[in-house]
Amino acid sequence: MSKETSLHEVHKGLGALFTDFAGWSMPVRYSSELAEHKAVRTAAGLFDLSHMAEIDVTGPQAAATLDYALVGNLSGVKPGRARYTMICDAEGGVLDDLVVYRLADEKFMVVANAGNADVVAEALAERVAGFDAVVDNRSEDVALIAVQGPNAVAILRSVTDADLDSLKYYASVPATVKGHDVLLARTGYTGEDGFELFVPAAEAPELWRILTEAGQPHGLLPAGLACRDTLRLEAGMPLYGNELSRALNPFAAGLGRVVKFEKPGDFVGKAALEELAKADVPRVRVGLKGAGRRAPRHGYKVLAGETEIGEVTSGALSPTLGFPVAMAYVDRAHSEPGTQLSVDIRGRVEPVEVVALPFYKRS
């Protein structure tokens, strides 16, 4: 039985098509994924992300706990700011990629992917041992709604007195939206400007209604998981289970920058990651640009001549750019931008070119 967010009845009323995602019944689309994708790129989209996990880490040694538990330097994050980071196992494999918000000197909120919620919560509960800190998984009580797109500022400005102009990217602030207390964060997973609003689950339907009404003059559409996937793909953002997994380390994913060896003290996976950082990564994550209309998909083989040299992890026909795009892991020797390769698309070999990520960057 799939779990349902507190917005499930709202989605049903909007005629959403549902899919099971990480054990949750989530809207995959409402009208057309193409229309929803284009709304986010040109106006705004409204997303229910309440399947994500919110885990508080609080106490005098909350920062030290997270410095030990995660690969990033969380004690260096100022209150009101957020950081993209990862939690790894002792061998350096990625358990999940995370966004961590520092809400106060002694309070952090770790946001994990839905499919890894239990893994992350259990790992943090184990790793807090010996530290003066407390881990509290609040996922059941918190809903998360995102407004993404170039009109997101205009929409939020009409319903909150928060100073949006001074709210930087990867920052958050407690705010009120038409009488509802929220944590308002300038974060997202679409490649566009926008906001994520954390709110008590019981208040989510009313907040969704408020944002929908505020967004009507600005072209806001409810947006499902299908367009969320094509948006993040165009922006070159990894998806756990596709570009990231326990079998992969941050360096292979091209995300070694998130591993902060210079922070004081030990952290889980440090020794293994130090060795991995020195080693030649056999396969690396790249972008692939196709021709025509046939898009490479997850699991398709990447070829150099007739030799298999990699595998596609995510791919789609880009609604914004009008040509096929994909991310793949390929042998390092074939990873330079401009390299001509091909992909076996259901028995037909189609040409692709290695390109730098991201495919799309907002102006």
UniProtKB/TrEMBL annotation:
<feature type="domain" description="Aminomethyltransferase C-terminal">
    <location>
        <begin position="283"/>
        <end position="361"/>
    </location>
</feature>
<comment type="subunit">
    <text>The glycine cleavage system is composed of four proteins: P, T, L and H.</text>
</comment>
<dbReference type="Pfam" id="PF08669">
    <property type="entry name" value="GCV_T_C"/>
</dbReference>
<dbReference type="InterPro" id="IPR027266">
    <property type="entry name" value="TrmE/GcvT-like"/>
</dbReference>
<comment type="function">
    <text>The glycine cleavage system catalyzes the degradation of glycine.</text>
</comment>
<comment type="similarity">
    <text>Belongs to the GcvT family.</text>
</comment>
<dbReference type="InterPro" id="IPR006223">
    <property type="entry name" value="GcvT"/>
</dbReference>
<keyword id="KW-0808">Transferase</keyword>
<dbReference type="Pfam" id="PF01571">
    <property type="entry name" value="GCV_T"/>
</dbReference>
<dbReference type="InterPro" id="IPR013977">
    <property type="entry name" value="GcvT_C"/>
</dbReference>
<feature type="domain" description="GCVT N-terminal">
    <location>
        <begin position="7"/>
        <end position="263"/>
    </location>
</feature>
<dbReference type="GO" id="GO:0004047">
    <property type="term" value="F:aminomethyltransferase activity"/>
</dbReference>
<dbReference type="InterPro" id="IPR006222">
    <property type="entry name" value="GCVT_N"/>
</dbReference>
<keyword id="KW-0032">Aminotransferase</keyword>
<dbReference type="InterPro" id="IPR022903">
    <property type="entry name" value="GcvT_bac"/>
</dbReference>
<protein>
    <recommendedName>
        <fullName>Aminomethyltransferase</fullName>
        <ecNumber>2.1.2.10</ecNumber>
    </recommendedName>
</protein>
<dbReference type="InterPro" id="IPR028896">
    <property type="entry name" value="GcvT/YgfZ/DmdA"/>
</dbReference>
<dbReference type="InterPro" id="IPR029043">
    <property type="entry name" value="GcvT/YgfZ_C"/>
</dbReference>
